[in-house]
Amino acid sequence: MKLRAGLLLAAVLCFAGTFTTSAQLRSDTLTIKQLQYVPDDSLNAGKQNSLYVGDTVTVTGIVIAAPRISPGGPLLFALGNANTMYIVDENGGAWSGLNVRASDSVASASTLLTAVDTGFVVRITGVVTQYFSTTQFEIGKIASWNADRQVEVLDTKPRRPEPTEIKITDLVNGDPKAFIPASQQWEGAYVVIKDASVGTVTKNTSTGRYTWTVTDGKGNSIGVYDQSVYFRGGSQGFDPNWAPPPAGTQLTYIRGVITSSGQGIVIAPIYPGDIVLGSFPPTIRGLKRDIGIPTSSQEVTVTATVETARPGGSIATAELEYGQGATSLGKVTMTWDATSKLATGKIPAQADGAVIWYTLKATDDKNESALYPAAGAKARPFFIVRNGATRIRDIQYTPYSDGAPGCLDATVSVRGTVVSAADSTSLSLVYIMDDTAPWSGIMVRGDAAIRALALGEDVTVSGKVAEGYSSATNGNTAIIDATVVTKHGTAAVPAPVNLTTGAFRSGVVTDGTPDAEQWEGMLVRFATLTVTARNADAPAGSNFGEFLVTDGSGDMRVDDFGSWKKVYTTDSSKTTLTLLKEGTRLASLTGIMFFNFGNYKLEPRNAGDFDGVTGISYTPASPARATLHASYPNPVAAGSVATLRFETAETGSASLALFDALGRRVVTLFEGETRPGQYSVPFNTASLAPGVYHYQLLAGSALLRGSLIIR
After folding, report:
1. What is d(CA 426, CA 443) in angstroms, rounded to the nearest whole number?
2. Host H or E run for residue 25
């Protein structure tokens, strides 16, 4: 990257007199590793939050990815006005990376975030926040930030550090969406992964963006996140025609920062040169077939664009294989047109009810091959053979764990009964069902006639099958651009299917999980529930209005979409509504099963879907008189120094003591009068034997406890 050092240094010096010091902002000075570190016992319990969430701290690091392509130039990250950069500890390694962001362009300019460049050494004061599993460092959130600068440039000589080499198995073990505690140490870190290959590649035709993975060839893969505009296709990309390497391509290396997205754990390459190819297999894209749901008398024509990736090369063969279940039923040699690059093959007619998968293999003149989908992919393109009328199951069903239907993008007509209507008392979404068996419900998005459908109407609708993360589908299979073909009158609304919350455990069950996916879009019911959390995203700091319930088999999310919010609430400040606080019991709760932002969720349609709500009382919240922060570090090596921090909101006496596993007081760490403010109590563990200890703070009427492990 070219650096305009003279101009930038002048800008930095111009602002130097207005930087806010740590003394002015009352913050703790930490290393990035101290800020990011999470103890093993917390990680093993599924708790990923930094110990300093909510605190104002100061850190120093090297910028590995600046907010803009060049100082004052276009944004490097396609994130609207939220300017983002990544900094790392100069020594690299575990717990060494941090995502720094300003909430908008005004905050970015005011704090000088937009003036820094890659390789700069910076000292930053900000607030530690948590967004789902990602720790973020927010600037522009401190009082008087419009007048104060919270970014100090210590060195303008570019020196981008070397990445830390890791393996894919350091991040995942099979499923990239399954949380592995050890992977948390690489969040925000600058890493390089060698000797991997491209797994799956999928293009969103409406946005031009790609979803793709890299794999180690042993069933372990992670997503590649297009956070940087250099690696994003479509209108938001630096090059709208950019495309990832084709599936099967060997990579010498891929480097970038580790973060998370809807794909799970991902690596985000930043600059050109962060991906180096090791081979040039053919590319296979635009795989299509001519019939979405064929009959038993129809052969199916499959086409794809097949090109050589090697300059001057050519395609030697293209082969279409098809089968059912674990059995291959045959292979077809495809014709290939050297001008259009189109390969064409025909799958013979198959029996009624058969579920047929197919794959394509292309080989070039140097005997390098590409397979679509890539070897080890969790899903293959498929179709269902159906004589007679199409059922919703024919659209929704998938034998794979990605949740994608076999007739994606096909135009279909299907009949069903409206179980959720888009009127003012419902979800503003239309769902139809044609049975109570699995796979029998679906979302319908369409014209005014679709939106005017009433609960219980028996209709035939026609539209295009869609799936994915868009405003039209939100991760669900849906019929979009739909119209009403025929109104058949009214019918009894199908009874909700009785299920258990454990099948949809929040944060555990992922998109496409078969036991959960089969109920997507259907009217379902859960009995004998207890509200376990008013904020399903606590303690991350965000609150999207969703709450958790359980029937004893596991916590499940309930979404805040629907008119039921006119009667019930999870917000204790809304005293005119019925509060669904922790411990509230429900005889039953009914709604549509929905998938959105990484979780299955129940969508109650209206207040009538809540039955037998009991055990409710309202008590105004009292302000916290004292706060006890987790010990750092934890675990701590015997003979090392650990630190306990607490704060009080009132004048009085306080004591902080350490107890052993039998409850015996081992040492009093602090005892005396306190005034409102923060207290930091370091202590040496040299005199303590390894084991589990408990610390206790008594401040006024507040009694708070925590645990510490000494190894």
Report:
1. 14
2. helix 22-25
Instruction: Give CA separation, 65 vs 116, 337, 558, in Å.
Output: 10, 43, 38
CB 97, CB 189: distance < 8 Å: yes
Which of 20, 13, 57, 17 lies closest to 35, judged by CA? 57
**Beta-strand relationship, 556-558 and 599-603:** parallel
Q: Copy the structure tokens of residue 667.
A: 């040492």
Q: Which of 121-130, 244-253, 541-550, 607-616 has the lowest mean pLDDT?
A: 541-550
pLDDT tens digits for range 144-162: 444 345 788 888 876 778 8
Picking from 566, 552, 574, 573, the residue whose alpha carbon sits closest to that of residue 610 is 566
CB 378 within 8 A of CB 360: no
The structure tokens listed for 169 are 């198995």
Query: CA of 162: how far to CAs of 62, 189, 255, 307, 701, in Å?
Result: 11, 11, 10, 35, 52
Checking if the pLDDT of 38 tops 70, the result is yes
Torsion over CA: 538, 541, 542, 545 (sign): positive
pLDDT for res 275: 95
Question: 219 is written with which tokens?
Answer: 């069933």
- The whole-angstrom distance between residue 163's C-alpha and the CA centroid of its chain comes to 24
How many residues are present in the chain? 711
pTM for the structure as a whole = 0.60
Q: Say which amino acid occupies 666.
A: V
Which residue matches tokens 């979803």?
211
The answer for residues whose C-beta is within 8 angstroms of residue 389's C-beta and 6 or more apart is 414, 415
How far from 520 is each of 267, 436, 471, 529, 684, CA to CA, in Å? Answer: 30, 12, 17, 20, 55
CA distance 7 to 122: 17
468 within 8 A of 462, measured Cβ to Cβ: no
Contact 513, 401 (CB under 8 A): yes
595: amino acid identity, one letter:
F
Q: Strands, DSSP E only, in 385-522?
A: 411-420, 430-433, 441-446, 457-466, 478-490, 497-498
Strand 275-277 and strand 556-558: the pairing is: unpaired
342, 336 Cβ separation under 8 angstroms: yes
Confidence of residue 670 (pLDDT cuts 50, 70, 90): confident
- Tell me the one-letter amino acid at 709: I
Distant-in-sequence, close-in-space partners of 509: CB < 8 Å, separation ≥ 6: 503, 515, 516, 599, 600
Nearest to 320 by CA among 310, 307, 306, 309: 306
The full DSSP string for 524-564 is EEEEEEEEEES-TTTTSS---S-EEEESSS--EEE---SGG
Give the CA distances from residue 345 to residues 288, 325, 342, 472, in Å, rounded to whole numbers and listed in that order.
Answer: 11, 21, 10, 32
| Region label for 553, one of left (φ > 0), alpha (ψ between -120 and 50) or beta (otherwise) | alpha
Cα-based distances in Å from 492 to 145, 174, 435, 458, 489: 60, 44, 11, 9, 11
Q: Which residues have C-beta within 8 Å of that of residue 199, sequence separation ≥ 6?
A: 212, 213, 214, 215, 221, 247, 374, 376, 377
- Percent of the chain at pLDDT exceeding 90: 44
Integer angstrom CA distances of residue 464 from 395, 407, 420: 10, 9, 20
Q: pLDDT of 270-327, one tens digit each?
A: 999 999 988 788 888 889 999 999 999 999 999 999 998 777 889 999 999 999 999 9
Residue 587, pLDDT above cutoff 80 = yes
